[in-house]
Please model this.
Amino acid sequence: MQDTQLYQQILGLEHPWRVTGVVMKRESRTIEVAVECAGQVWACPECRQRAHLHDYETRRWRHLDSCQFKTILVAEVPRVKCEEHGTVTVKVPWAEKHSRFTAYFERLAIDVMLECSISAACELLGISWAEADGIKQRAVRRGQARKQATAMPRLCVDEKSFGRGHDYMTIVTRATD
Model:
């Protein structure tokens, strides 16, 4: 099995995406995986209407490490011209919009951040605090999008005085039967 086939399977890429090359850079301890897109009719990622190919944008994503080598996906991502939304970048199957990390890496990062401090997680993963914060915010948005809104049967609100003077605390809780 060649490196390209191995990474094709590891990433779970399907048509029209395919791995075209794998380059190991020993000095920087990185592996770059080149991904390209075969000819495809594209739709606007916003409205799903057929759109014309405008150009390509080179983008990079951090993936799970391969044998202690930082793994980077590099792809020429198509940008399409939509009549309603203008020029927009096509969604890639391995990452969220505006993320510079693959979904697999973000899943690992969330697990690590749940087990230790953010500073320790950043050091273990080799990411900055701002990058960790972005990963957390995207995870919260995904969780909120999955959460079903439910009406509470009863809501209790109480105001209690504490300390001296006019210091009050408002307590809001859901009533249980």
